């Protein structure tokens, strides 16, 4: 019988992570995410992976077209390995969002934090950044 350990201790709005191997996981992952981990000392069978992935937001495993077709909630593909032969980059690129290049970004307040965010945003090449004063309420008095 295939064993899955589920630690769903947060609301459904918290991302869920599927761990497809019996491996040591950074303890912080359990503090921040709902985790389902395969508990057998072998690779998670492909049929079980395809059955489980529609319920999860992230995982670490082989990523190909068939897998992506099942992974409707997937928001992140990450790899802790040398190389990325196990990830179908071409298929992943087809499913990426538009990003913020050539878009308009709106900022409310441009104080210390807002200014820092704008500085970082510029590297993503937005078409323009619109912002309010540091304290918009001052002009109403």
From TrEMBL:
Keywords: Oxidoreductase. Residues 22-95 form the D-isomer specific 2-hydroxyacid dehydrogenase catalytic domain. One of its GO terms (cellular component) is cytosol. The keyword Glycosyltransferase does not apply. Pfam families: 2-Hacid_dh. GO terms for molecular function: glyoxylate reductase (NADPH) activity; hydroxypyruvate reductase (NADH) activity; NAD binding. PANTHER family: 2-HYDROXYACID DEHYDROGENASE-RELATED (PTHR10996), GLYOXYLATE REDUCTASE_HYDROXYPYRUVATE REDUCTASE (PTHR10996:SF277). This is D-isomer specific 2-hydroxyacid dehydrogenase catalytic domain-containing protein.
């Amino acid at each position: 019988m295939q064993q899955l350990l589920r630690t769903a201790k947060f609301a459904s709005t918290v991302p869920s992570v599927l761990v497809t191997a019996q491996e040591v996981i950074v303890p912080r992952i359990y503090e921040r995410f709902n985790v389902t981990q395969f508990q057998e000392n072998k690779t998670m069978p492909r049929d079980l992976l395809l059955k489980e992935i529609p319920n999860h937001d992230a995982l670490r495993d082989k990523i190909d077209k068939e897998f992506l077709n099942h992974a409707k909630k997937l928001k992140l593909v990450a790899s802790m390995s040398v190389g990325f032969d196990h990830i179908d980059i071409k298929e992943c690129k087809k499913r990426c969002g538009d990003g913020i290049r050539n878009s308009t970004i709106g900022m409310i307040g441009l104080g210390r934090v807002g200014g820092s965010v704008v500085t970082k945003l510029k590297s993503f090449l937005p078409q323009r950044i619109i912002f309010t004063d540091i304290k918009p309420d001052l002009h109403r008095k």
